[in-house]
Design a protein that fits this description.
486 residues; Rossmann fold; eight-stranded mixed sheet; three-stranded antiparallel sheet; 49% helix; globular; DNA_Partitioning_ATPase; Cellulose biosynthesis protein BcsQ; AAA_dom
Length: 486
């Protein structure tokens, strides 16, 4: 083999490859990708033993310890989450529409009002949210009638239920629901959050501790079915047929009311019906009940029990966080909702998935309507027709520099269904998530002031778009009620 032939051969050495041609200058050797030259023996040495079923329990336990550690960073000395204080600057900028100087004059003239606390001599005053709500009530009673110290809320109308849903995970469903709940609370509304997701992320955000499925909505759904079964049994007995026995679960569920499940949170005007892993059992139990009682209207279960227990009269807005799947729990949440919000990212896959989600919603609810209306027409009864006051898709985690064209395309196809407000991703969002807090729970002193203001702006805009829906729907109902009374 001559020198020219040798120079044209591939040579390999020290993890690098190079083809050298006769007479060509020598070039630097590029490193090979990391998936070449993996030693089987070295790979074996790094490998752990095969995992058994018990190994899942060990991983789950480790995750639980880590979760508790992370969550504990937002807890007080008694192990409960506590809400931060709000400064005079923050109150007058975001919560009560008055000038800072006027705010201070009002406090000085009314020593019976909360005066706040200062961390340093002559420093800024800080207030609890309870105190802010008291101050807002004072300004609403004594201040200018031209200013909105309290949000619009027609008397005599029930709470509005808002479901946040999408069967694709990772779209910001729970964080959107949580931040809207916090926004509404800061705005002065009385809020209830219902967690239907057995993962319990919403429950964790609001510091809930649920022992088992009996602390979730499960007994309310069971009670609704028990009521149906009792009615069916009365009909059976009247026909001379034996009744279907009530099991212990249904008997116990009949004793439970929604008020037994509603827990206070660290927000004075946000309450919670939480979730935990055992709630997933409902996805297996509900179809059993449906087989036993085919006339049971499971889609009415959540709405009926909330109305029967007076919950719709005690709150202004009820947010329902649904599982990332179109199961029985999600159907209950969607059927109960007056407003449906569908978060998604500005990507082809999420757009495609969301389209399939809407298609599945159509198929599911059309199937329920058709099944019910066959009997309704035969009996001369009013036909079933599901209706939502408003449905909006909401872009989350939006990056205008990278996703503007995609967002515009989605807007063009979805039209008014797509909210024109796009929820940007900012540094504040990421940092708040690391601390297991919502954006509104973050202390602005932990951030650059401009970063905090920008982070709030995107969520404030999302809430403003939602509030326009809420106010418009209430106004429509208010005017309809007045017209009906005339």
């Amino acid at each position: 083999m001559d020198m020219a032939e040798a120079a044209g051969r591939k040579t390999v050495g020290r993890g690098r490859a190079e083809i050298r041609k006769a007479g060509s200058p020598k070039e630097p050797l590029a490193p090979l990708p990391p998936y070449f030259n993996i030693s089987p023996d070295a790979a074996l040495a790094e490998l752990e033993a095969p995992l058994t079923t018990a190994g899942f329990a060990e991983i789950a336990e480790a995750c639980t310890r880590g979760r508790d550690d992370l969550a504990s960073r937002g807890l007080d000395e008694e192990g409960r989450k506590s809400l931060r204080l709000f400064s005079t600057w923050e109150i007058t900028r975001y919560l009560i529409p008055v000038a800072t100087a006027h705010f201070r004059r009002v406090l000085k003239a009314n020593p019976d009002l909360p005066q706040g606390i200062s961390e340093t001599e002559g420093g800024a005053k800080w207030f609890t949210l309870d105190e802010v709500l008291r101050l807002r009530a004072h300004f609403a009673a004594e201040g200018s009638k031209a200013k909105e110290y309290r949000p619009y809320r027609p008397a005599g109308l029930p709470a509005k239920l808002v479901a946040v849903a999408n069967f694709k995970g990772g779209v910001g469903k729970t964080s959107t629901a949580a931040h809207l709940a916090m926004s509404a609370a800061l705005d002065g509304y009385k809020v209830l959050v219902i967690d239907l997701d057995s993962q319990g992320s919403m429950t964790s955000i609001f510091g809930g501790r649920i022992a088992d499925e009996w602390g979730t909505v499960f007994p309310l759904l069971a009670r609704h079915y028990a009521g149906h079964l009792q009615a069916e049994n009365r009909a059976r007995v009247s026909r001379g047929d034996p009744p279907v026995p009530m099991d212990e679960t249904l008997t116990e569920a009949q004793k439970i009311r929604a008020g037994d499940l509603i827990a206070k949170t660290h927000w004075p005007n946000i309450d919670l019906i939480g979730a935990q892993l055992n709630l997933y059992w409902a996805e297996f139990q509900i179809p059993v009940w449906r087989m036993q009682g085919r006339g049971w209207k499971l889609w009415d279960a959540l709405t009926d029990v909330l109305a029967e227990d007076g919950v719709l009269d005690r709150y202004d807005v009820i947010f329902i966080d649904t599982p990332p799947a179109l199961g029985y729990l999600t159907i209950n949440g969607l059927a109960a909702a007056d407003i449906l919000l569908v978060p998604l990212g500005a990507s082809f896959l999420e757009f495609d998935s969301t389209g399939r989600f809407f298609d599945m919603l159509h198929s599911t609810f059309r199937s329920i309507e058709e099944g019910e209306n066959i009997a309704a027409r035969a009996l001369g009864r009013e036909e079933l027709s599901f209706e939502w006051d408003a449905v909006r898709a909401v872009l989350t985690r939006f990056d205008g520099a990278q996703q503007g064209e995609m967002a515009a395309l989605m807007q063009a196809y979805m039209g008014r269904t797509m909210s024109s407000v796009r929820q940007d991703f900012t540094a504040l969002i990421g940092q708040a998530g690391e601390q297991v807090n919502g954006i509104y729970e973050a202390d602005y002193r932990d951030f650059n002031r401009d970063t905090y203001i920008r982070g709030r702006e995107t969520f404030d805009a999302t809430y403003a778009a939602f509030k326009r829906l809420l106010v418009g729907i209430w106004r429509r109902e208010e005017l309809a009620a007045k017209a009906a009374a005339e």
